[in-house]
Specification:
The structure holds two protein chains of two kinds. Chain A is of the alpha/beta class. Chain A contains eight helices and eight strands; from the N terminus they run H-E-H-E-H-E-H-E-H-E-H-H-E-E-H-E. Chain B is built from eleven helices and twelve strands. In chain B, the strands form three sheets. Chain B has an eight-stranded mixed sheet, with helices on both faces. In chain B, strands 2-3 form a two-stranded antiparallel ribbon. The chains are: A alpha/beta, B alpha/beta. Chains A and B meet through helix 3 and strand 3 of A and helix 10, strand 12 and helix 11 of B. Chain A: This is Methionine biosynthesis protein MetW.
Chain lengths: 194, 373
Amino acid sequence: MTLRPDLAIIAGAVPTGTRVLDVGCGDGTLIAALRDAGVDARGLEIDPANVTAAIARGQSVVQGDANRDLADYPDDAFAYAILSQTLQTTERPDRIIDELLRIAPRAFVSFPNFAHWRVRLALLWNGRMPVTRLLPVAWYETPNIHHVTVSDFRDLVGGKGIKVEQAWYLSGDKPTSDAAASWRAEHAIFLISR
Amino acid sequence: MASLLHEIQHQSVTIGAPLPLDSGQTLPSVTIAYQSYGTLDAARSNAVLVCHALTGDQYVASEHPATGKPGWWARMVGPGKPVDTDRYFVICANVLGSCMGTSGPATPDPATGTPLGMKFPVITIADMVRAQAMLLDHLGIDRLHAVIGGSMGGMQALAWTAACPERLASAIVIASAARHSAQNIAFHEVGRQAIMADPDWQDGDYYDKFCAPAKGLAVARMAAHITYLSEAGLTEKFGRRLQARDIKSFGFDADFQVESYLRHQGLAFTDRFDANAYLYITRAMDYFDLAEPHDGQLAGAFARAKDVRFTLVSFDTDWLYPTSESRRIVQALQSVGAAASFVELSAPFGHDSFLLDVPALDRLVAGALKAED
């Protein structure tokens, strides 16, 4: 099975032998890849069907809500926290980032870039909330309640004094440059640290 | 009734070593009745201990000698089943204080030869675990691949992780709690009072008498049985339907189907359980509070269990041991960094869901057992 490109980047960047928490881990696809790479990966996931599937595969996953249940983990419980494609669904993304960097010194955060040119064009030409490959749900039923752009995220972490250790930008499945990311990136992955 | 039950011969071992109890008393020796399934591998590393619930027994996957019914978890334990006896050596022991061959109130007093009755010391869940550990020592098993249990069986599994975490790779705790709540204790007290109010109870000294407190025990079971089900489950099964009649009797016969069901459950129970054992085991559950020795901090109980892989399951319709109790355990485990899994499954059967057909539970148990670190 091939991993979603953002997950493949994260899986490739986590060092072997570390302990990580995948927040919003879905059915445990990334956890499985991390385990194959010798990483002690655990998960937090809100959907019981996903949690059941992950546990049935032998993974350590707790059913819970990232908005509240990250508080149960002690400081520095993990080497890395991972939040892939989940930031835009949380109640307070700024507080979630604080929590991620409390339970781990470093965190991977990935999200669809709402400033991608297709999104901008859709809004500009049609005057409607865009429905795209990475944001496939209509405005009234989308779980994505806090749309975010690459620039917004850079501003948020910059304002908090959080370091960006590394960033990856994907256009389709291909990398795109730092400079062009705001327009061209469909998807951004940041490795941030305290 | 009681005498028939106590005539059954069970496979058991008697261990001559003293068993110190939480109460401060000591049992000079202990008999433990157990069943095992599958084969212990050469490395002695594939043993799975299954812990039974309050009124369960060691016949987890074999026919019950008193009722002739299949084992209480026959759908979970067996060849190719989630607890796969082709892979694992599965042990299920009758708990200390019970009535299916393990030392309990029906055990003869060595001094007089008559059953101990209420002279049997009050025991705890931790005492039950100590007795199980003695059985494992006897069987030459240092370390368990897993300990697994539902309800009171889950309490034993938790007590194992607190008492001897080094002897466990994994603990699977289903529909359980780390403490008995005031409501749990209250329901048990109703049951105990029903037994002790039965004139046939005779201060627990009824074993060689003509009558045993079957009526009190049946009422205790009826009250408890309601707590094992959900309101939605009861409504779906019985509603307000009448039993074998078209109109109400305006009397106190079992007019409603639910009444007749409970009466049947209560009566059938007295054929397979001993009233004094019910008193002792419910007491053990009431005393259970894993956090108590750690100033009320549950995390303290798991401080040494970081390397045990925990899997916890609750059911959304279980109001006896609700999801909040499992979450409390999960929070404590996360705070010590233990590898914990938890999910609340949706099932209509209330607390009893852990014994019934919930396919997701089967998948979870199989996955949790196979998980490799």
